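Protein modeling request. Please complete all fields; requests missing the sequence field cannot be processed.
Requester role: graduate student
Desired output: 3D structure, C-alpha cell encoding
Chains: 1
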Amino acid sequence: MVAETLPVWLKLHCNSLEEEGLFNTTNINHVLINEYLPGQGIMPHLDGPLFTPLITTLNLGSGCCLKFSTRSEESEQLEPQFSLYLEEGSLLVQTADVYENYLHSIDEVYEDIIDDNVKNIKLCNGIEVGHVIKRNTRISLTIRNVPKVAK
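Delivered output (151 residues):
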C-alpha cells in the first residue's frame, strides 16, 4: 500500500477513535469507504494478515445484519455462528478471536429478518426478534492500520 494523507474530515473521526484507546498500540492509516445499495452484500471473508488484527467499522445510512461463521475443519464448509445487527451510526470493533477466526458477511437481500441468532438485539433501539427491516443505501467506513506501507 502507498501512504496518503487522510482528508481532514476523516482524520477528525479517526482521531476520536484513537483518543478512545481503540488503537492504543498503532495509528489509523487506512480507511475503506464502500456504498451498498439494497440487495448488495459481501461474501464471507477474513480481513487477513495485511492489517493489524483490529478493525473498526462505522455504519452509516441503512442498518443490516452482519453474519459470522467458522469453517469446519473436516469439510471446509461454513458453519453459521451468530449475527449482529449494525444500526445506523453504530461502530463495530473486531479484534482477537473474532478478527482471526470468524468469517463475516452480509447477505445480498433487500430486507433483514431479525431472528434468535442476532446476539446484540437487546442493545438495538426498538428492534425485536421477528421484525423485518427494509434496507436502504448503506455507507461503511472500515477503519484500520496497515503496518507495512510504501512511502
